[in-house]
Amino acid sequence: MTRIFSGVKPTGHLTLGNYLGAVRRWAFVDQQRADALFCVVDLHALTVDHDPGRVRRLSRQAATLLLASGLDPELCTVFVQSHVDEHARLSYLLECVATDGEMRRMIQYKEKAARERERGGSVRLSLLTYPVLMAADILAYGTDEVPVGDDQTQHVELTRDLAVRFNQRYGHTFVVPRAVRPEVGARVMNLQEPTSKMGKSDDVGPGVVYLLDEPDAVRKKIMRAVTDSGSGQDVVYDREARPGVSNLLEILAACEGGNPEALSGVYESYGALKKDTVEAVVELLRPVQERHKQLCADPAYVEGVLRDGAEKARGMARPRVDAAYRAIGLLAAG
Ligand code: TYM
User: Which residues bind ATP (predicted)?
Assistant: First the structure.
């Protein structure tokens, strides 16, 4: 059976981008068709300046939202990364296979490091090695497919390179995984800056729709979305020339299960497009928010799911990580 692994990082509240690019597919497609693991990757949240209490709160919230989005512990494994030591154990071995040049070429590293430096802060070493930990997350489970949004493509490519290199040097140990992206919604852009990704730790809050936004907040954010002034009012799909309008068409299409090209030219004004997009997003989020509310009233259930999930995940990861320890030349403990 196909093995799937994917994760979400608790560095902010989950966004519409996370949902359309990844989580929705995990819930409605992946968990039904494969042996799937979904993880709140909390160790990754420590790579930038962070408040310990906030990371804990966001980790719990992310796990609750994954369940609210429809992940079913009867069908898949949901857990928190730091509860399973194998991720950090394997990450060190992969650091011994990766090169520093490779790490420095990662686009997300370059962007985030530049941002940290601009703010006058220093760059944590873990920000540089982050993609290696991500590779460990994936490779520990013999993963075939990694369902992610567009921004993770380079990291999954690196994961493939490390798996192949390790296998060539030390004998076949890892499955070489591949990224799987949704056709629509793989790159939802910030509503205020439609040339940048909608990210959960963005400073431009008004441009980000969060999964837990009230309908009124969703309405305000979408109605105030930047459209493409100076280029006429044609509501056409053209990512390059019309990033603002195209983003709204993409969001609307993703919500409705259609495609944005088919919506090109259907709307006569930005206002009408925005109104329909508001409705579609509010309807999309409604069941998630309702279920989230119920789950918040039952924290013991969520904790139980995470405890069982970690135990299952540990059992799946340990044999392969132990095999990697032996293959690379470490002496087995008696
Ligand atoms: P993270 O937490 O940034 O995002 C979680 C998932 O949401 C997708 N995504 C988006 N998709 C479309 N439009 C957007 N604006 C958007 N923003 C985010 C991401 O592509 C991702 O699929 N490094 C990863 C977490 C990670 C991981 C892993 C993922 C750690 N280990 C192993 C897969 C496998 C990250 O920061 O995702």
Answer: 9-11, 17-18, 149-151, 188, 197-201
Pocket mutation for ligand 1, best pick of 148, 155, 175, 196 (most atoms within 8 Å of C-beta): 148
For residue 17, give every residue at least 6 positions away whose Cβ sits within 8 Å of its Cβ, in sequence order, or none: 149, 187, 188, 197, 198, 199, 200, 208
The DSSP letter of residue 20 is I
Task: Check if 184 has its Cβ closer than 6 Å to any atom of ligand 1.
Answer: no
From residue 57, give the alpha-carbon distance in Å to each of 52, 79, 85, 266, 275: 9, 15, 21, 43, 33
What ipTM was assigned to the predicted interfaces of this complex?
0.99
> Is 2.30.110.10 the CATH classification of the domain at 205-293?
no
In tens digits, what is the pLDDT along the chain, a chain of 334 residues? 999 999 999 999 999 999 999 999 999 999 999 999 999 999 999 999 899 999 999 999 999 999 999 999 999 999 999 999 999 999 999 999 999 999 999 999 999 999 889 988 899 999 999 999 999 999 999 999 999 999 999 999 999 999 999 999 999 999 999 999 999 999 999 999 999 999 988 766 899 999 999 999 999 999 999 998 765 678 999 999 999 999 999 999 999 999 999 998 899 999 999 999 999 999 999 999 999 999 999 999 999 999 999 999 999 999 999 999 999 999 988 7
Q: Where do the structural domains in the chain lie, given as residue ranges? A: 3-181+299-328, 205-293
